[in-house]
């Protein structure tokens, strides 16, 4: 497009001339996807849906970045693997902070539509589980416990169970640097050597730190989520059929990279 804007000639190179902000971002579709279950309308349900949809969009982005980071490790591009993990960290911080927005909803206002949500629950978030699997916490029992999984969603989870995790890719990096990775003892020694000579192993050390950061931020989200749940529903069971906060508390000790945490005790 060529034209004048504030007296200046502009050429945006808009070949074909039909793309607009709204058509590029497919806003007609995006903004038509917030369908409330409550009747009469509960004012806060739009916020509830919006928050979850934003989470899922960021989950999609996180999976995009983690997959590329894993592949960068497998192809010896450690700087790229670390660069992408750093982006994931900033998204993860944003996801934890978003809980603040949802907490502007009171339990009474949530109660206006909560009963309509059952048996749906965040437990059924396929992308959330994909992130866990890809990060290193593969647990096939979750796939079995999923209710109402579409064929496509099942295939995506099976694929994540099959493909290498970030941790496995990191082991390939250690192997490539000449370390034995056959058992936990060897691995501990390798990590100790990397930590003890950061001049020689700068890239591997930074990568290990970036993985640990990802692990820590995931743990922060779990902790933030369970406290919000206690604030919203106390000790009530969850809509997904679990004990609620009790179940979520049992997930708080989950760590993707226990060996990176163990290492701390011997540094
Ligand atoms: C009012 C706000 C929320 C409440 C009361 C709540 C409550 C719960 C409860 C009780 C569970 C356990 C499963 C069940 O039986 O239902 C759960 C799981 C889960 N929720 Fe939420 N949740 C809230 C908001 C969110 C948000 C905004 C997300 C973001 C996507 C989310 C994601 C998840 C995930 C991923 C799980 C599964 C966790 C795991 O298995 O480790 N929740 N939630
Ligand atoms: N499990 C929540 C309801 C809930 O938060 C939820 C319901 C449907 C879809 C996503 C949800 N978010 C997280 O669990 C509850 O028991 O109140």
TrEMBL record:
Domain of life: Bacteria
Catalytic activity, reaction form: L-tryptophan + O2 = N-formyl-L-kynurenine
EC number: 1.13.11.11
Annotated pathway: Amino-acid degradation; L-tryptophan degradation via kynurenine pathway; L-kynurenine from L-tryptophan: step 1/2
Sequence positions that bind substrate: 48-52, 114, 239
Positions of heme binding: 225
InterPro entries registered for this protein in UniProt: Trp/Indoleamine_2_3_dOase-like, Trp_2_3_dOase
Subunit structure: Homotetramer.
Function of the protein: Heme-dependent dioxygenase that catalyzes the oxidative cleavage of the L-tryptophan (L-Trp) pyrrole ring and converts L-tryptophan to N-formyl-L-kynurenine. Catalyzes the oxidative cleavage of the indole moiety.
Sequence similarity: Belongs to the tryptophan 2,3-dioxygenase family.
Official protein name in the record: Tryptophan 2,3-dioxygenase
Organism of provenance: Kribbella sancticallisti
Taxonomic classification: Bacteria, Bacillati, Actinomycetota, Actinomycetes, Propionibacteriales
Gene: kynA
